[in-house]
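PROTOCOL LOG
Step 1. Enter all chains and additional molecules of the complex.
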Amino acid sequence: MRHLNWERAVSVLLLAPSAIAIFIFVYGFIGFTGFVSLSNWKQLLPDFTLVGLRNYQRLFANPRFQIDLRNTVVFTVLFLASSLIIGLLLAVLLDRGIKGEGIFRSIYLFPMAISFIVTGVAWRWLLNPGTAQAGSTGINLLFEKFGLGFLKWGWFTDPTVLYIHPDSGLGQLLQRVGLGALAHPNLGMSVAIISLVIAATWQMSGYTMALYLAGLRSIPEELREAARVDGASEVQILRHVVLPLLQPITLSAVIILGHISLKIYDLVVAMTGSGPGFATDVPAYFMWETTFQANRFNQGASIATVLLLMVAVLVVPYLVYSVRTEAKI
Amino acid sequence: MSKRAICLALAVSLLLTLGLSVASAAPLSQGEAYTIVLGDWLSKIADKYLGNPGAWPAIMAATNTKYIEDPTFARIENADLIYPGQKVWVPTAEEAEAFLATYDPGQPGLLFGAGPKGQVVIGSWWTSGGEAAGLSGMFDIYASKYPDVEIVNGAVAGGAGSVFKGVLKTRLIGGTPPDTFQLHAGLEVEGYSPETYLAPLDDLYASEGWEQAFPADLVALLKSYKGHYWGVPVNIHRSNVLWYNKKIFADNGLTPPTNFDEFFAVADALKAKGIIPYVLANNGGWEAPHAFESVLAGVCGAEKYRGLWTGAVAWTDPCVTQALENFKRMVSYANTDYSALTWDAGAGYLIEGKGAMFIMGDWANGEFTKYEFTDYGWASPPATKGIFIALSDSFALPAKAPNKDNALAWLKVCGSKAGQEAFNPKKGSICARTDCDPALFNDYLKSALADWAVDAIVPSVVHGAAAYESWAVDFKNTISLFVTSGDVAATQTALQAACVDAGICQ
Amino acid sequence: MTTQRRKRGREVRWSRVLIYAILTLSAMFYLMPVYVLVATGMKSFAEVSLSRMWDPPSGLHFHSFIRAWFGDPGIFRGLSENFMNSVYLTVPATLISAMLGSINGYILSKWKFRGSEVLFPVLLFGLFIPYQSILIPLVQTLQKMHLYGSIPGLIFVHVVYGIPITTLIFRNYYAAIPTELVEAARIDGANLFGIYRHVLFPLSMPGFVVVMIWQFTSIWNDFLFAVTLIGNPEVQPITVALNNLAGSFVVEWNVQMAGALLAALPTLLVYIFLGRFFMRGLLAGALKG
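Step 2. Run joint prediction.
Step 3. Record the structure below.
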C-alpha cells in the first residue's frame, strides 16, 4: 500500500507524544535510577558522588536480599505454573457447553476486579493458622470442622525452608561435583510463600482462563473433527492439536503474569509482611523499606535496577522473538 | 511668555509626565483596588500590574479575601467569569509572589480566601483509634485559637508510618512538604538531612520556655542531633512494659516475674497447663525487636545499654550474648504464629485469655481500654525495674512549609499544657511536659508518670530515639531474622557490623 | 451399536457430573474470600474475631458499611468523600488512554514506517518498570510541570504509564484485521484518517472494551501513585481513604472489610456486567500473543 508523504509524516507525528512521554517517564527515569544506584545517596539530601559498583556488591552480600531473590524466583515459577494450569483446566471444562457457563465465568473472572490490597486482607484472614494452644483459625479451622485436621499447617507463619541439605545424599553428590554452594537455604524454597501463591493465583487465574477460553473457541472445529475421525481420544486431541495452537496465548500470559510477579508488593504488604525469617519478603518490599525508612536511596535504586534486569531477561527475548516473527510475515 | 519660561514649562511637564509614567509602571508599593472594565480578564490585569499574566490566582485570592471583610469587593467564583464593574484587589508584587509560591492547583480552596490565615497541613500516621482521637483533641484547641485557619489532616495509615514516611520523604525531596509532620524525638531526625529540609526550632523553644517545661532527659534527647531542636514533643511513651492477664496468673497461683529465672519458671508452669506463656508478635517487623530491646536493657543495665548506642560499649560484649540467649529462650515459649500477628493482635491474645504475658509499649493500654478489658496487670519486663525505655512523638517543621506561621502556631499548641492534656489521655501516653494534671490519666498512666520521675531514662532504638534510622532498620531486620534462626553468634556479629556501618563503632 | 451408545451415554453422564463437581468446587474456592469479607463486614465489633470467622453474622448489620462510607467525624474519613475523586480520575484517564492506545495501535499495525518495528517493543518495555523506584524523579518532574497534587496530574501519569498496555492490546487487535479491508478503503480513496474513521474504528468495540475494563480496574485500584502524588486528603482517590480506614495501630476489622467491599464495588460491577464483552473482545483477538 503506497503511503502518501504527508501520511508518513502524520504517522510519525501521531506517535510522537507517546514516544516522547515514554522516553522521559520510562527511560529517563530508569537512567536516573541507574545513576542513583551508583551513587552515595544515603540520607534525604541527594548525594551524587559515584562509588562504582559497591552498592551492588553489598546488596548481593546482604542475606535478606539473597532470600528475596530466592523468594521471587520460587514465587514466579509457582504462580505462573498454577495460574496457567488452573486457567487451562477451567477453560477446557467450560468449553464443553456447560449450563450456566456465564455464571461460572463471572465467578472465576471477578477476582481480577479487586485490588491486591483487598485480596491480601481477605486471604490473610483465610490462611491465618491460629495456634495449637489458642485454637485454629481460617482454613485450618475449616479443616478441623470437616474432620481434615491433619491437613493443618502454619501457612504463611511457617518458617520452614526446603533445600538440599549439605549432609544429604544429593548434597554430598553436589559437593563432589563442585556445586556444593547449591546446598544452601538461600537456594531453597520457603513453604510460607505458597500462601502468597494461592492468593495471587486466586486473583489472576480467571484472566488465564478467559484467555484460554477465547483461544479454545477460536480453534476451528474442523481441526478437532479431523483428529477425531483419525481415532484420537479427547485427551490426545488436547495434547497434540489444541495445546500447540494455544502456545502464543501461553506466551503472552507468561509475560503479563511474569512481570506482575516480579514486581509484587501490595499483596505482600497487605497479607504477610516479610514473614518469619523473611520467608515471604520480596525485592519490592525490601526496596521500599530501605529507601524510605533506612534512607538508603542508593541501595533502593540498585534493587530497582536488579529487578529491571530480571524483567528484561524475561521480556527482551520475547520482544525480539515477536519482532522477528512479525518481520518474517 | 518668554522663551525661557516656555522651556521651563515644557521641561517641568516633561518631567512630570516621565515621573507619572515611571510611577505607574513601577510595581505597587501596596495593593490597590481596580474596577473591571469591558475587555478585561484576570491574566491581563495580572500582566499589567504585576508583569506576569500567570499571577492571576493571586489576584483572585486577594480579592476573595478582601470580600470577606468588605463586601463591596467581588467574590470571584470562576476566574474566567468576571464582569465590568466588579471591584478586584490587586496585591503587591511581593504578596503575589508569596501567594504563588504556596499556590497548589490541587487545592482550589486556596483561591477563595480560606480565611485570612490560610491552611495548615498536618502529616502523621495516626489514623484511627485513640491516636486519631488525641489528634482531634489538639485540632479542636487549635481551631478555637485560630478559627480562620483550615486544618487539613494529612494522615496516611500504614504500620508505624511505613507508608507515610515514603510519601513524606518523596514530598520533602520534591519541595512540596506538608506544613508539619510526625517525627520521633531523638536521632531518627538524622535521616531527614535536617540542616537542609527542616527548620531548627531553637527560637521557638526559647520563646515558649520549653527547656524548663520538659524534663531534662527529654530535652537532651531532643537536642541530640547537632545540638538543635528539630521537633516539639507531645508525649512520652514507655517501651518496656510487661502486660499480663491477671486471671491466668491468679488461676495458676503465679506472681509476675521480676527477673529472667522467675520468668522462665512462670513460663514452664504455664506451658505445662497448655497456655501460651509469652505472646510474641512480629508482623510489622518491629514488635519482636521491641521486646528484645527490653531484654537487652534488662541484661546489660541502663549504663551499658546507653553505651551500646553511643559506641562506648561494643556489641561483642558478653551481655549482648546473654541477652540473645535469654530472648531465644523466651521465643521458645511463644506462639508459633507470631509472624501473622501485629502488635494489637498480640494484645488481643492477652485479652482473649489465650496468652499470659506480652511485652509491648504502653499504647497497649489503649487497646485494652477500647475492648473494655480490665483484668490486666503491668510490671517491668525481667530485670528492667528502675529503667524507663523512653520514646517520644514530636512534630517537626519543614524548611519549605507552605504555611509556616500556621505551622508554628500548631507547634505552640503541641507544646502547650492544654494541647498535651487534650492529646495524651486519649492516646494512652504521658505528657512530655511536667505540669500536666495527673487526675486526667488512668491508673496505668499514673504509675508510668511516677516511674518517669525516678527511673533511669534510656532511649528506645526501635522507635527512633537511640540511633539513626538506617541503623534502627538494620537492628530490626537482624533481630527479626534471629527470631527464626536462633543463631546467636551470627546475630551478634551482624549487630556489631550494623554499628560499624552506622559509623558509631570501630 | 445401541449398546455402545448407551454405554457412552452413561460414561458421558459420569464425566459430566465430574466436570460440574470440579467447576462448583472451584467456584467455592473463588467465593470463599467474598464470604469472609461480607460476613465480617456485617458483624458487630464484639463479634469480629479470627477464631469465629466462619460463623455467620448474628444478623444483617449494615452499620460497618455505613460507618465505612460516611466515616466517623474526628476519627476517620469515610469513603464517600473520596469516591467522586476516584470517578473524576478513572473515567477521563480510561477514555483518554484508550483513545491514545487505539491511535498508537492503528499506526503501529497498519502504517509501518522505518523504525516502527523497533518503536513498538521500546514502548512496550514501559510496562515493566517497578513504580516504587521512579517515584522521586516523577514527583520532581510533575512539580516542574505544575501537575503535582492534582487529579489532572494523576490522570496524566496514568495515561503515560497506560501507553504500553493499551498500545499492545490495540496493536494486536488491529493486526488481526485483514489488510484487504484497508486496501479496499484505500482504493476507494480514503487517507490515513479516513481508513481509521470508516474501517477500523467501527470494528474497534471489542478492543475498546478490553482496554477500558483493564485500565478502569488498574487505575481505580491504584494506591501507590494516588498516595504519593496527591497530598490533600480532599483530593485523594478512594484507595487512599480505604488504606486509612485500616488505621496504623488500632484496626476495626469489620469496618475495614466493609470498606474494602464498598471500594471494590464499581470494578466488581464492571466485571460482572461487562464480563461477557470482555470475553468477546478476547475472542476477537485482543491480548493474543
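Step 4. Note key features.
DSSP finds 21 helices and 15 strands in chain B.
Confidence is low (pLDDT under 50) at residues 17-27 of chain B.
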